[in-house]
Design brief:
single chain; 221 residues; mainly alpha; 2 domains; two-stranded antiparallel sheet; 54% helix
């Protein structure tokens, strides 16, 4: 009985919509305003966050190059070991450096670490922070807060978005407000990781609703 009643209601709704028409002023305004303009605005903070969480190419910072005439690649050859990356290619390590007792002696002699008695086992984690490739990004949240190597899961956890569809037209506006406010707060709290993570999760909840609410309403019209 319940299924028959729902089918009857759907049929009545379709009959009403056929009489009203689907190309009226309201439908056109809805399509232009909600399905185009508002969705475009909602996409900006969402994808800005993805760009802000990008992790540029990075390597251990080893002080001392400013006092030499070495290029960056030459300095990496002296101070960084090589290891296979995720693509299986041999490249400079992103998280390890050679253990140099006195880098001034190494650099002044012009010798590479293997010539100076530094072997594969003479490596350690980055001791002086990291340097970042600024070809594409001047600064991102991970590069500013050093969310790399042992802290790379910070980025992964921040990108675990808990998305739910929680409503239609009223929730559409609420979702935009929550998303914009949450992204603004997260941009200001990257120095406080747990606050940043909490704000990111909370502001990510309405993301799906922002995109689905206009679609659902549009299908009903």
């Amino acid at each position: 009985m319940k299924a028959d009643q729902e089918e009857t209601e759907d049929t009545m709704f379709e009959q009403i919509m056929n009489k009203i028409g689907s190309r009226g002023k309201f439908q056109r305004r809805f399509n232009y305003l909600f399905n185009m303009f508002f969705v475009m605005l909602a996409s900006m903070p969402y994808y800005n966050f993805v760009l802000a969480m990008a992790v540029p190419d990075h390597w251990c910072h080893v002080p001392g190059r400013n006092g030499t005439n070495y290029t960056l690649d030459q300095w990496k050859e002296i101070t960084l070991p090589r290891e296979k990356d995720t693509a299986g290619l041999l490249s400079f390590s992103k998280c390890k450096m050679y253990v140099g007792k006195d880098w001034a002696d190494v650099t002044s002699s012009g010798l590479v670490p293997t010539d100076h008695g530094l072997q594969k086992h003479d490596v350690t984690k980055c001791q002086f922070g990291w340097e970042y490739d600024k070809t594409w990004y001047t600064e991102t949240a991970p590069s500013r807060e050093n969310w790399v190597c042992d802290r790379e899961l910070y980025v992964t956890n921040s990108l675990l978005l808990q998305q739910r569809r929680i409503g239609r037209r009223p929730v559409f506006f609420i979702s935009i407000a929550l998303l914009a406010a949450g992204r603004l707060i997260s941009a200001l709290t990257s120095g406080m990781y747990y606050v940043f993570l909490a704000v990111t999760v909370l502001s990510s909840i309405p993301v799906t609703a922002v995109f689905q609410a206009p679609l659902i309403l549009g299908n009903k019209l």
